[in-house]
Write a structure and sequence with these properties.
The complex is a heterodimer of chains A (439) and B (303). Chain A is built from five helices and 32 strands. Chain A is mostly beta strands and 439 residues long. In chain A, strands 3, 4, 5, 6, 7 and 8 form a six-stranded mixed sheet that branches. The longest helix of chain A is centred in the N-terminal third of the chain and has 17 residues. Chain A is globular and about 80 Å long. Chain B is mainly α. In chain B, a hairpin with a 5-residue loop joins strand 2 and strand 3. In chain B, helix 1 packs across helix 2. The chains are: A mainly beta (439), B mainly alpha (303).
Chain lengths: 439, 303
């Protein structure tokens, strides 16, 4: 017996110490930063849904491709039909096409209500990644498609999507000297465009409320700055306040109860906050210099803004951060040039800004402590960065020079890749990205 | 009765101390093999002392720092042998090309889909569940397979060790001699890759060739969050022709808690399973080392 125990122990120890069991390890440190190939065949249609079964995958495909992280495979190359793929995907037939992911779905309807069932498969691994069904009114089919695109984006990249969103912007038309500016809102992909103001008064700087149901903006009426809040659905607007002199860029606090803005009073431009219920205004910065462009951090505890307080004579504005009540001001940007329009990322980790140096404009991002500044877009005039709700994409205005120069909205990935124009009916500027509408 | 007990106790102590000392050498070798792939090829060349390949490795040291290209000439001849042998997976490269042409209209598939009767709603749910069920099954199978493998190794050894035991009971010195012989790596043990040869026989260029081969198929989403803190080990089983039979993400717990890790891990698994990269160019004569091995996918250098 003892011999047996001994021999077992011996064997155990011997095996444990035997390096022959150490598995071979090979490091792979390089890969391809490339879009993931995805196959999206037309969805299966129930009765009367033929059009949607084709259009919904088109919208999904457009969303995903626009993100730069997916590449759509040509439908003409597909071997398996959707019906059987939905029931039992033959992965080898999709593998041959080098489709890493496969999205199949079905549209059914009952009266005015449509239900879209979809499944996303990891083709190489032969497993289902997501399977969800979404119901909605028929006239909301584009939103259903955007939500499916969000689900696919989220499952494959690990980040929240940004497709079920809207963009508020300033529509520009007419000659340069007599420009007509109207507030407009549309789906992020340029569809369902609606004008919210008539263009009689010049409007500026639209900003979504945290629930994306209201937009705060400025309008110049009789040369006086008026701050309005308009309801996106009812289109009713209410005057929040009107101020003599220059007023800039009202922005909501994350709780929606406070509006931040900068006002020019008593010879200085300082930051103020306005209580949305009472309408009372209180001053946040006490300084003889110019403080502008305030923006809350996502948790509402801090405010980022620009100021020329370090060198008022040079007009070289830099970026500062302070606590929400106005104290503990510290400078975070130390590079050359003039910084403006800081926007805090919804993720909380980065601050986007416009930078002007040697006659050229740039859109850049930096860490919250001012380190790791990166310029990701440039142009004759680029300005007004606004974050996508997932903090991954920046929307900005790009104006080309010259007499015929136009102004358009562009989106660029945080990495500086995938610059794309955002479709608008006419010239556009000052875009603001809503949060996910499904939130 | 007491004698055997005392013997066994003494034997334990000696064997333990011996093995504890023995632990370090193989361990150090393992570490020194891992580091060089990333940083210093000099050490690899020294250790991977295969008679013919050693000079090649020294060439690598000189050429590597400047351009990464000089390496191909070495690995290329090696991958070639496995490639011609079998090509079981569906033709990889030629077919993706037809996919590239500009998107063609969809009239062809459409009529088929319309013709397809929509199956009853219950049928919908079944496929949904099936893949989900398969997953856990596979995982379980993988775990059990691993467990099975280890015993087989163990059962090989008792034969040897039993012999030792008999000799050990006669004389401790004999046992010590035998042990030291074993640790020095006697090739006479036949089955599988001899312990210490793993690091020594597989050259840096062979490792590099495999790494670069799989890198072609590893598609990482741009701007992956926390890429600096991600390192994905994928356990691989290949058949003799280099075809990947199983690719298992090792850290399953982190898969469910860390979405960036899940993204990286799934992309890594897809790379290994990508038909374009299968079969793997493993040296035909070193298959024993590749029965089960690990790819460590590390994207930090890419961002």
């Amino acid at each position: 017996m003892t011999k047996l125990i001994l021999s077992l122990l011996f064997i155990g120890l011997f095996v444990a110490s035997n390096p022959s069991l150490a598995t071979l390890e090979i490091d792979v440190t390089q890969g391809q930063i490339a879009p993931t190939p995805i196959a999206i065949p037309d969805f299966i249609e129930g009765e009367g849904n033929e059009e949607l079964a084709q259009k919904i995958p088109e919208v999904i495909g457009n969303d995903l491709e626009h993100s730069g992280l997916f590449r759509l495979l040509s439908k003409s190359s597909f071997i398996q039909d959707t019906a059987s793929a939905l029931r039992n995907p033959n992965f080898s037939e999709w593998r041959v096409l080098n489709a890493q992911c496969l999205l199949v779905g079905r549209v059914t309807s009952e009266g005015d209500k449509i239900t879209v069932e979809f499944r996303l498969f990891d083709v190489f691994n032969g497993t289902q990644m997501v399977g969800v069904s979404i119901s909605s009114n028929r006239n909301q089919w584009r939103r259903v498609a955007h939500r499916i695109a969000d689900a696919v984006y989220n499952r494959v990249t690990g980040e929240a999507g940004y497709f079920d969103t809207r963009i508020a912007y300033i529509d520009e038309s007419g000659p340069k000297k007599k420009r007509v500016r109207r507030l407009a809102i549309m789906d992020w992909d340029g569809h369902n465009n609606v004008y919210l103001t008539d263009g009689v008064h010049m409007v500026l700087t639209p900003r979504f409320s945290p629930n994306s149901k209201e937009i705060a903006y400025m309008a110049y009426v009789n040369k006086t700055a008026h701050v309005y809040v308009i309801n996106v659905h009812t289109r009713k607007k209410r005057l929040v306040g009107h101020f003599k002199g220059m007023t800039f860029a009202p922005r909501f606090a994350p709780d929606g109860r406070v509006l931040l803005m900068s006002l020019a009073r008593e010879g200085t431009t300082a930051l103020y906050k306005m209580d949305m219920n009472s309408g009372s205004v209180s001053r946040l910065t006490q300084h003889s210099c110019i403080d502008t462009s305030p923006c809350f951090s996502p948790d509402g505890s801090q405010i980022v803004f620009t100021s020329d307080r370090s060198n008022p004579e040079s007009c070289q504005e830099k970026i500062y951060i302070m606590d929400a009540h106005g104290g503990n001001v510290r400078r975070i940007s130390f590079g050359d040039g003039k910084y403006s329009q800081p926007a805090w990322s919804p993720r909380g980790d980065l601050i986007a800004f416009t930078k002007q140096i040697e006659g050229r404009f740039y859109i850049g991002v930096m860490n919250v402590d001012g380190t790791n500044e990166r310029l990701i877009a440039d142009g004759h005039l680029v300005e007004a960065p606004s974050w996508s709700p997932n903090g991954r994409v920046l929307l900005f205005t790009k104006e080309s020079g010259g007499k015929r120069g136009n102004s358009k909205l562009y989106a660029i990935d945080l990495t500086g890749r995938n610059l794309r124009i955002i479709k608008t009916p006419r010239d556009s500027s000052d875009g603001a990205w809503s949060r996910l509408l499904s939130e | 009765m007491k004698r055997p007990l005392i013997y066994s106790a003494l034997l334990h102590v000696t064997v333990l101390t011996l093995l504890l000392i023995g632990f370090y050498n193989p361990f150090q070798r393992k570490v020194s093999m891992e580091q060089p792939v990333m940083i210093e090829f000099v050490q690899v060349a020294e250790q991977s002392a295969a008679p013919v390949l050693a000079p090649d490795a020294t060439q690598d040291i000189e050429q590597k720092p400047e351009p990464p290209k000089p390496l191909p000439p070495q690995p290329e001849p090696k991958p070639e042998p496995p490639q011609p042998q079998p090509a079981p997976p569906p033709a990889p490269q030629p077919e993706p090309e037809p996919v590239k042409p500009e998107p063609a209209p969809r009239p062809e598939p459409k009529p088929e889909e319309i013709a397809e009767p929509i199956p009853d709603p219950k049928a919908k749910q079944k496929p949904k569940e099936k893949p989900k069920e398969e997953k856990p099954k596979q995982q379980k199978a993988e775990i059990t397979l691993e467990k099975k493998k280890k015993p087989t190794v163990k059962t090989d050894k008792p034969d040897n060790t039993k012999k030792k035991k008999t000799s050990a009971s006669k004389n401790f010195d004999d046992l010590l001699n035998e042990l030291s012989k074993e640790e020095s790596g006697s090739p006479s043990r036949g089955k599988g890759a001899p312990a210490s040869t793993i690091g020594a026989v597989l050259t840096a260029s062979e490792k590099d060739a495999l790494s670069r081969h799989i890198a072609q198929c590893w598609i990482i989403p741009a701007g992956l969050r926390d890429a600096r803190n991600i390192r994905v080990p994928i356990k691989i089983n290949v058949s003799r022709d280099g075809t990947v039979q199983k690719a298992e993400i090792v850290d399953k717990a982190r898969m469910s808690s860390d979405l960036s890790y899940r993204t990286a891990a799934e992309s890594a698994r897809r790379a290994v399973l990508d038909p374009r990269c299968s079969p793997l160019p493993i040296p035909a004569d070193k298959y024993d080392m590749f029965k089960e091995f690990t790819f460590n996918f590390d994207p930090k250098e890419m961002f």
